[in-house]
Write the structure tokens for this entry.
Amino acid sequence: MLRVRFFARIREVVGESQLELPLSAETATLDALQASLGTRGEAWRGALTEANLVRAVNHQVVHGNTPLAEGDEVAFYPPVTGG
Amino acid sequence: MAATVRVQVQAGDFDVAALQRALLFDDAGAVVTFTGYVRKGVEGEPAVTAIELEHYPGMTEHSIEVIAREAVERWSLKGVSVVHRIGHLPVGAQIVWVGASATHRGDAFAGCEFVMDYLKTRAPFWKKEYGDFGERWVCARDSDEARAARWQAEN
């Protein structure tokens, strides 16, 4: 299984904070997962195609595509605004 | 002696005097600290009355620790301490505290500012503002990215 987490505005737009998904062709890479989630509806498509969306795998921000493995935790979130 | 690095993410308030005391070492001649507060907002716009801070548990602590250890290496700091609050915070509340101790003040100033600049652009926290306007997510500011980028240019 993969755990997929959403934070802040992205969490509100898609209406989910966390999903558990089985590994499959649709979740084999970060780009594939993102594209697959984007087909869940208009809100999902909008949130997951935002230009400044940040993607993290296992608590590390990822630039570019990467393969996903059993037990990985993926997160999608907007630019951070702490401090 | 190995440098002390402490990272705390918590809902409760913090005591800056106690945090600063924990950064005093016999070989550290300088401690520089920064405290961030919830502010009312921009003059002429509807006032902010409170904020809500969301974070990514686990990743938050880890990312701050990476930043703090980088500062320790780069400026030979004796200690770095970071406290960041989460949850609902009214105007005037303390949000964040960063302290850096070093042999001399130049390294302590630089280390403290570096940690703060990177925390603002890398650590997974998100602010939502509340006020007469209702509620709204705070947008990331290009000026914060520019501040963090300076540290690469100066490397």
About this structure: Chain B has a mean pLDDT of 95. The longest strand of chain B covers residues 94-102. The CA atoms of residues 126 and 150 of chain B lie 23 Å apart.
